[in-house]
Amino acid sequence: MKSKLVTMETMGEFLSDGVPQNWKISHSPRASIHISPRDWEIALRIETQELANVDLLEEVNCVWHTEPLKDSGTAELRIKAYGHIYEAYLLLENIVDRCQGGQGFPDSVSDAISGFAYFSNSTKILSESKQIGLIGELMLIREIEARAGLDAALEAWLGPFRAEHDFKMPLFDVEVKTTSSERREHQISSLMQLEPSVNRPLYLLSLQLTKSGASSQGTSLRAISEQLIGLSLDNGIKLSRGLMNAGWNPDHLSHYGTTYEVRTEPLVFLVDELFPKLSSASLMMEPEAAAKISDIKYRLDLTEQKDGFPLALLLEKDQT
Questions:
Q1: Strand partners, 131
Q2: pLDDT recorded at residue 143
Q3: Are 119 and 91 in contact, with CB atoms under 8 Å apart?
Q4: How confident is the model at residue 261, as a pLDDT?
Q5: Per-residue DSSP letters for the chain?
Q6: 29: preceding bond cis by omega (within 30 degrees)
Q7: Can you tell me the distance from the alpha carbon of 320 to that of 310, in angstroms, rounded to the nearest whole number?
Q8: What is the dihedral of CA 231, 234, 235, 236, to 10 degrees?
Q9: How far apart are CA 2 and CA 96, in angstroms?
Q10: What DSSP letter does each residue of 36-53 carry, written as one string?
Q11: What is the pLDDT along the chain (320 residues), one digit of tens a residue?
């Protein structure tokens, strides 16, 4: 039986306070949660005669440690959960639920892990193109944050959550395309990616980046993610969740230090009937037939497209 209801909002309050917290989460087995906000660490202390084999859990987005405590029959499972303590809390809560159902502690840990995507599939390093794409989305978050705050920016950011478009602003949608090519060429991954939602204008933000070398003008995926996460603890949790859904892993930050700077002015294009794109209409296909095409990719070259305008003008539209 849990003695405390913890939501993302209350967890954000705990983190913002910066004060260590602990509370009982179960009476049978005896279990409690302990949080150290400044260390991004959360721990489960639980009544058990067995230790979980965390050596089997190395491929997760956390640093794990389990050990017996001084009082016999109690173990502690600690997670260094940088940027995503709330998700780690849900995982620990799930472990306790399994133990309450009669499952042993080691099996409860292993089975709970397998059901939480945030703490699995963490071994892949993002490719250079994916890093550049994520930097582009974070650059737009930074621009929105400067005008409307980080809450508004993260509310609009849907790219990592497999939404139709990367950003859903109050008045319009934005698809972000970032390239390191000398030309303004972008990969379009489906017929629907540049299809506006009903009664909502769609804009494409085109970014061209180039490696900045020793220049102080550039940013890296590591630098921009750490900068935005550091703006506030509670929003850092939300941002980290999106980053992890996009394949980012805090344990891989040492691989994300390559710096890039803007090659040309970012340009925005209205995606309307005159915009160059493939669609079911342009291919003279019925929507039902187009829906049966599961995979289509093409390259779009906007180098000579003349109707682009600065990003600042688009963001002003959203504030009027």
A1: none
A2: 96
A3: yes
A4: 96
A5: --S----HHHHHHHHHHT--EEEEEEETTEEEEEEEGGGTEEEEEEE-S----GGGG-SSSSEEEEEE-SSTTEEEEEEE-TT-HHHHHHHHHHHHHHHHTT--HHHHHHHHHHT-GGGSS--PPPPHHHHHHHHHHHHHHHHHHHHH-HHHHHHHB-GGGT-SSSEE-SS-EEEEEEE-SSS-EEEE--SSTT-PPTT--EEEEEEEEEE-TT-TT-B-HHHHHHHHHTT-HHHHHHHHHHHHHTT--GGGGGG----EEESS--EEEE-STTS----TTTTT--HHHHTT-----EEEE-TT----EEHHHHHHHTT-
A6: yes
A7: 17
A8: 70
A9: 9
A10: EGGGTEEEEEEE-S----
A11: 344 567 766 777 777 778 898 899 888 888 999 998 887 788 888 888 776 655 444 434 444 455 555 555 788 888 877 667 777 888 888 888 888 888 888 888 877 776 665 555 455 788 899 999 999 999 999 999 999 999 999 999 998 877 889 999 999 999 999 999 999 999 998 888 999 999 999 999 999 999 998 888 899 999 999 999 888 777 887 888 788 778 887 778 889 999 999 999 999 999 999 999 998 777 777 777 766 776 788 999 999 999 999 999 999 987 65
* CB 141 within 8 Å of CB 157: yes
pLDDT of residue 256: 94
Structure tokens belonging to residue 136? 């582009």
Distance CA 259, CA 233 (A): 25
> Positive or negative CA dihedral for 243, 247, 253, 255?
negative
Retrieve residue 123's tokens: 């071994």
Do residues 94 and 115 touch, judged by C-beta distance below 8 A?
Answer: yes
Measured between its terminal Cα atoms, the distance across the chain in Å is 50
Q: Which domains does the chain possess?
A: 8-119 (3.30.1460), 128-317 (no CATH)
